[in-house]
């Protein structure tokens, strides 16, 4: 028995037609590239709008922080001025407030309080400690005065040579010239401290000898005494120098010459023996083993 046969063509079933399928067909590459090209402008617009939104939020936050900080600082300045606070203190408070605001904005923790640091003793406490050390039988005796270290940093190389020269050769002659009354001016003046230390000590800058001697005297290492040296011939050598002869030539009637001396103080002697490599009386060089 034959089922489904018909002479007409309306209900005929063609067995040669392919069966339905679920496979996905691939589109050509050119078509996909065209679709991506059409979608890229919209993605660029969305990305640009996102960047602009982030930038606007950041700018708005910075502007708001700046306005709040400025208002706070202005309030501090106004309050301090109305309270009669000195301008320097008002400025310090304003600067501290700005630093705190920047620190909070960056998330930096506040600095440690002063109580966490080791307290610095006051001058009175340091003085009391010195008195306790002086009364202690177990206190260590230092080789030199504590001021020697600081004094070394205040000396020039030429000044060190002057100290060594005075230590080795002893006191040096110096003269003061009191110029009498010139006929035109009717006044007198003194030319003080003329010496040959700069030449005899071998200084690099002998023309700065007066500056060097002033600094050494300030430190208490040398002294200008009014007592002349025992040998008067040393002053004759000094008077024969051209600077002294020029002063005497320009001076008028009544000019007087005073013999002085430049000597190393006891404190200066200790300083030289402690800090400079010079020969000491026992025949060895100080500052060496």
UniProtKB/TrEMBL annotation:
Biased amino acid composition, Gly residues: 1-10
Lineage: superkingdom: Bacteria
Disordered, as annotated region: 1-20
Protein name: DUF4393 domain-containing protein
Alphabetical list of InterPro entries matching this protein: Abi_alpha
Taxonomic source organism: Nocardia arthritidis
